[in-house]
Known about the structure:
The protein is of the alpha+beta class. The chain is built from 2 helices and 4 strands, in the order βββαβα. The chain has helices at 44-50, 77-83; strands spanning 3-9, 18-24, 33-41, 67-75.
Amino acid sequence: xxxxxAIEIQGYGAPEVLRLVPRxxxxxxxxxxxxxxxxxxxxRPDVLQRTGNYPVPPGASDIPGLEVAGVVVxxxxxxxxxxxxxxx
Length: 88
């Protein structure tokens, strides 16, 4: 099983509840891409999620970081082409 590193919210509270943890590498589904994240913004929903005031929508990732920059490493080839994206 491939593993990635992620910042996880391990309880509600101050920034000290954030922990770097290993997680299974996600497998992109139809219409999805996998991004090797090199930078992530922290925005209001991330802070509200950490403090327990913004529930994660059903089916969404529980990992904070709604805004990211990085490299597409895998994904739905047809969806990538329609969006004008490519791996790499």
